[in-house]
Give the backbone structure.
Amino acid sequence: MPESAWSAPVRFAEVDQQGVVFNSHYLTYCDEAFAAFLAQRSTAVLDLVAFSARVRLVTSTLTWIRAATWGDLVDVEVRCERIGATSLSVSFAVRVGDQACCDVTTTYVLVDERGAPVPLPDAVRAALVSAQ
Amino acid sequence: MPESAWSAPVRFAEVDQQGVVFNSHYLTYCDEAFAAFLAQRSTAVLDLVAFSARVRLVTSTLTWIRAATWGDLVDVEVRCERIGATSLSVSFAVRVGDQACCDVTTTYVLVDERGAPVPLPDAVRAALVSAQ
Amino acid sequence: MPESAWSAPVRFAEVDQQGVVFNSHYLTYCDEAFAAFLAQRSTAVLDLVAFSARVRLVTSTLTWIRAATWGDLVDVEVRCERIGATSLSVSFAVRVGDQACCDVTTTYVLVDERGAPVPLPDAVRAALVSAQ
Amino acid sequence: MPESAWSAPVRFAEVDQQGVVFNSHYLTYCDEAFAAFLAQRSTAVLDLVAFSARVRLVTSTLTWIRAATWGDLVDVEVRCERIGATSLSVSFAVRVGDQACCDVTTTYVLVDERGAPVPLPDAVRAALVSAQ
């Protein structure tokens, strides 16, 4: 199985009265996984965490496959699917063991201080598609 | 402006250190708005809240337009966009005043105890597309 | 019954798999209720919301009496119990209808930019103990 | 430093617009730490996780010392402070490195199906005060 970027046990507070992780928490898992993915690709000269503070969420699509439950160890694999001039699309595979739970694809755009899209630097583009 | 199904002020705990509502909370707003939408269409003989306990989330797409901030009064308009044999797609327009913040479309499927899709009853179909 | 400072229906995402509001959410309710309490006592010349941004939490004690459940309308009554030189203690009565759910007492201290306690202004002291 | 029962990095969604962990999340950390503490003391013949499902929260006191921030690795040490006939008090030391962040003391009572207090079994009492 591919290495996951982020992993954590499901918390009791994340499970609803139907006994499954409430839907919104999958976005939180992906947010943490994206930060971990960027930290793992940062170097002394390329701070991708600082980069992540300058991107804005455009859109996110979640597809639920099977519910995670309390105590399950959730793994999130992260992959950069597409890099455009100013935006990138990232896929997140949220799973428990080898069981897929939720697939998420999120598009981010790099913006300047006024919120206008700006080109992704070449060093960032290279890092995003590199193996860790 | 159309009537919103659900409304609430943004809570301090929902705002992140960038000063905007953290992305996952929009799914929580929509969840509450869908429950309110169903409660508003329930009658003495048609319990749509009980119906909602029998649907399962299939997929959800969020598009962020403009961030809501602490103290903003969030309104969510709900509209049933499509009703299939066993599933339905619902659109949620999350806004602050007349400013759109986030558009969400979610597909739900009605399932039996084993999780298998079952046909939507005619009374439910009629209620879902009715004006309130 | 006394007027509550803040009120909201329990959200589905706040209820755990035992069917009751997860314990930490009572602190979120009190946080919102304190902000509402201060906003209700602000005037053109006294901005208690700005004041609230300058206080720091010291301690909080929660006593759970009876669990709130999904859809319950939670009311929070707020009362300033004690005002010292630099700190204040506030009690929160979280209830559903006339049923007490959780009593919370929280002590806040007013601090300067370096985090050192500073005296509470007289105008703030007067407003905190006023009826609305 | 004593071994912590539970540890996790602070999540971005847990940090508020003042740049610190929002107060209610410390209760979530302690809830996870208590579950981990019990799991670590469970044996083939003593299921303390099942025990934890039968306790009810009575009261909890939090004292904040220093704020944790995004990315900090939070450790929670757990110690059973007092065991009475039907209840127990547990202290939680939430820290980042060797810096104390929040001290929490929580009292739980063991209850039967109708919510009436029942005596703590001797095997449970012994396990709660054992070193891991």
User: Anything to note?
Assistant: Chain A has a mean pLDDT of 94. Chain A is about 25% helix and 35% strand. Chain A touches chain C through ten residues (CB under 8 Å). The longest helix of chain A spans residues 25-41.
